[in-house]
Every structure is written in C-alpha cells, then in structure tokens.
C-alpha cells in the first residue's frame, strides 16, 4: 500500500492500468485528449504489478483498474472519472493540481 501511495503522489495525475483493459484505455485517451500527461503504470507489464493490484483493491478500487489518482488522492475508476467529467468537475480538478494550464 505504501508503494501505491508513493507512486500516486509522484505526478499530478497517475493511472494504474492494464494494457488489455478497454476502460483503462478509454480513461487514458480522455485525459490525454484534454492535454494531461499522466503517469501510467501498466500493472500487467511491470514487476510487482500483482501486489500493486491487491493494494488498489484494499484501497477500495473495484475493479482494480483503471485506478485514477489526481493530486495524490484516489478519484476512483472509470465510472467516477466519467461522472466528474459529465458534472464538469474534472477539468477544474485537473487545473487545480497543475495537470492542465489552460
């Protein structure tokens, strides 16, 4: 769990993902289309990915990916990110943490 917290706080936006997950791809595409440059950790391609996935589940991410952290805080998965976007709250949140300049 400590590793997840450390990784999540290294950049304004961090996404824990799996390369084969279509929802992870959708969230990465959405954020990149806004101009965000998130840190992306592909759990199925990295050493220790299974342990990180278990830590994400313990944090309440179910399913475990995508798990999106903004400003070091867990926002949630695809449903939560899309809900924020539809409520027009996502972009202001990204601006607050310095992930977007305009």
From TrEMBL:
One of its GO terms (cellular component) is cytoplasm. PROSITE patterns: GLUTAREDOXIN_2 (PS51354). It comes from the Eukaryota. Keywords: Cytoplasm, Redox-active center. InterPro entries: GlrX-like_pln_2 (IPR011905), Glutaredoxin (IPR002109), Glutaredoxin_subgr (IPR014025), Thioredoxin-like_sf (IPR036249). Transmembrane segments: none annotated. Residues 13-75 form the Glutaredoxin domain. Pfam families: Glutaredoxin. PANTHER family: GLUTAREDOXIN. Belongs to the glutaredoxin family. CC-type subfamily. This is Glutaredoxin domain-containing protein. It comes from Rubus argutus. The lineage of its organism: Eukaryota, Viridiplantae, Streptophyta, Embryophyta, Tracheophyta.
């Amino acid at each position: 769990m400590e590793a997840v917290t450390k990784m999540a706080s290294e950049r304004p936006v961090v996404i824990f993902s799996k390369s084969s997950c279509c929802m992870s791809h959708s969230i990465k595409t959405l954020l990149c289309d806004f101009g965000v440059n998130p840190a992306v950790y592909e759990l199925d391609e990295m050493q220790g990915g299974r342990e990180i996935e278990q830590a994400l589940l313990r944090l309440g991410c179910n399913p475990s990916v995508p798990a999106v952290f903004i400003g070091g805080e867990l926002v949630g998965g695809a449903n939560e990110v899309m809900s924020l976007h539809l409520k027009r709250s996502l972009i202001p949140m990204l601006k607050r943490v310095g992930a977007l300049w305009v």
